[in-house]
């Protein structure tokens, strides 16, 4: 049995037939997610792609139990966490962290960077000998931030730096799964490459798994092991990265890939043939 087959036989996360409805009026309901099912293996990165409004972020929030599903189930590390509350939900969130698309909206502007990054440790009630400062500084250094700036406030950082603060906050508790919702979209190309390298290095070092949501297909191809393509709240195609990118089966996936600018379209067409 290969490592890939072992990973899928006992996934870290399994989402089954998840539906999410939002009431938009007294008699109207909008279904944002329609019977979505997928799994994430241990040490695996699942990329989720699709147009804006396809349900990617809602699906991610359900997987992290930040939003409750209308129906369906969520299993994490072999346990059903669909309805967990209180201390059980808090324990689950220690294993799953989220890096949000807009860093400023997810960072408390009144807290210093040290307070922001250490927040998950305090939420989990984890005791660290000597306090949290050492772990915070190590996390900042690991994501390319100056540890001496831990006393500054989020507004004193650029958008790219603020996103790194969000990544450091997610990683400081060493979760088993990190959900990255457009986590690199605010970064310029060179910094984006550095952060992607960082995520890969962390995965190798600490056996993290990722759900990586991005509108940039090139980014997803760099980091994902498997890819799920969403459209109008449904997963229309999913599979191994190379299979999705080199031989897409669904017309929507084909259209997404055709829309990606290419330096030499003739060469790309010949390569695929």
TrEMBL record:
It comes from the Bacteria. Residues 13-257 form the ABC transporter domain. GO terms for molecular function: ATP binding. Keywords: ATP-binding, Nucleotide-binding, Transport. It holds the Pfam family oligo_HPY. CDD domains: ABC_NikE_OppD_transporters. Belongs to the ABC transporter superfamily. This is Dipeptide ABC transporter ATP-binding protein.
């Amino acid at each position: 049995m290969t490592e890939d087959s072992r990973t899928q036989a006992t996934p870290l996360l399994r989402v089954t037939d998840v539906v999410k409805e939002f009431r938009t009026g007294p008699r109207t309901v909008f279904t944002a997610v329609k019977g979505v099912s997928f799994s994430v293996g241990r040490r695996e990165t699942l990329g989720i792609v699709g147009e804006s409004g396809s349900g990617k972020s809602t699906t991610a929030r359900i997987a992290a139990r930040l939003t409750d599903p209308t129906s369906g189930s969520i299993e994490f590390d072999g346990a059903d966490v669909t309805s967990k509350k209180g201390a059980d939900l808090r324990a689950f969130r220690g294993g799953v962290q989220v890096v949000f698309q807009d860093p400023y909206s997810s960072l408390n502007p009144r807290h210093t960077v040290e307070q922001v990054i250490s927040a998950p440790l305090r939420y989990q009630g984890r005791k660290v000998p000597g306090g949290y400062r050492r772990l915070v500084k190590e996390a900042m250094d690991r994501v390319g931030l100056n540890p001496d700036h831990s006393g500054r406030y989020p507004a004193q950082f650029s958008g790219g730096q603020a996103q790194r603060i969000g990544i450091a906050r997610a990683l400081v508790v060493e979760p088993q799964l990190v959900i990255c919702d457009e986590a690199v979209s605010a970064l310029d190309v060179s910094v984006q490459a550095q952060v992607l390298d960082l995520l890969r290095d962390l995965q190798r070092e600490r056996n993290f798994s990722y759900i990586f949501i991005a509108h940039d297909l090139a980014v997803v191809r760099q980091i994902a092991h498997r890819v799920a393509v969403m459209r109008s709240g449904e997963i229309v195609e999913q599979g191994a990265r190379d299979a999705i990118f080199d031989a897409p089966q669904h017309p929507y996936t084909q259209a997404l890939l055709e829309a990606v600018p290419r330096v030499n379209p003739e060469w790309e067409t010949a390569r695929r043939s």
